[in-house]
Write a structure and sequence with these properties.
about 425 residues, mainly alpha, globular
Amino acid sequence: MVIVLLLGILFFLIFLGAPVFLAMIFASLVHWVDVGRDSALIVLVQRFYGGMTSFTLLAIPMFLLAGNIMTKGGLTDRLIGLAKAMVGHFKGGLAQINILSSVFFGGISGSAYADIAAMGTVFIPAMKKEGYPEGLAGAITAVSGTMAPMIPPSIVLIVYGSTFGVSIGALFAAGLSVALLIAICYMTLTYFLIRKLGVPSYQRASFRDVLTALKHASGPLVLPVVVVGGIFSGFFSPTEAGAVAAAYAMFITVVIYRSIKLSDLPKIFLETALTTGAVMVLIGAAFSLSYVMAARHVPVEISSALLNLTTDPFLISLLILAMLFIVGLFIDRTTAVLLFGAIVIPIFTTQAGFSSIHTAMIIVMALGIGHLTPPVGGTLLMTALVGKMSVTSIVRYIWPFIILEIAITTTVILFPAISETLPRWLGLGGL
């Protein structure tokens, strides 16, 4: 009865539009009211505070700051120039450049919304000018943005690893592997979708031109290389990597390129602080709720219910995948991971026998599918806003990408090596 009341309050408040962190806090208080002891409330407060003060979570404001500085510093054009030199000669060159640029920018921002905000303002008008249907330009921009949370330094993966005790370095390695697979699949599908549109391609860049573009983009590209390389090699922790990233971003934008003035920094600091505060409060509330879920054996109860339906690991995975897909329609990935991770992760690792790294990739990918799906997919709405177009126009062209994303996620479930090979080669944990 208590579990039903707890989950009922949680989903009812979310349905009413209450902030998710408040919904999690009020749901957690059900445990205290039922126990009837002040000690239970003290434990909930301790969990809340402890969740926000984890040393690893210091990486979040640092990476957010680095991404904000690089974005405000106008380094997008340099990344687009490199993408154009590499894939601009492919069929539908601008669409391919859009996708590859998102891979590069994802290594800086780690956020789907930041990627769409930066790339959408550039690519959507340019693609429309070259003859792409408005909806297709929006669809390609939206799906490209969903790759960012898989690419280091992904904020979602940092939160996931910090909250559930999984190696962030291993998550980064797995996420990079999966993101590259997704990018290749997106570019391939795009080729077939636009081959009859008659949109232009660009002249093949010479080797010298590619080197020139690479040199021009070397400043922003060094950031993900240093961060990922440092973490993978064990030279510094994710938290230290965040500090290095922020310092580097400030140095190249203020000193080298001079695209940001010192007077601009206080505003950037304030924006980063506000975003960080919102994320940290959410994490604290999630820690309290996770404790209550464990104390009330919620994962065990849900796992037992699933086992009554089927004992096949793959079918269990598909059932959870469907649930996460629905969740992703309404809640952003970071919030959903914190909200449902404590329930879903034990089922994947215990009942389905998946490794913690494999589990993480499945969860993050499944939630991303919902972000693309009408009527309330987050990245879908963000793209419509940035591109000044209707959601309906995007929906017409986005379904092939959603089907492809479902197929890729199913493939990752069936073949764990896709997400586990690189972390294993690098000797990282979580396997």
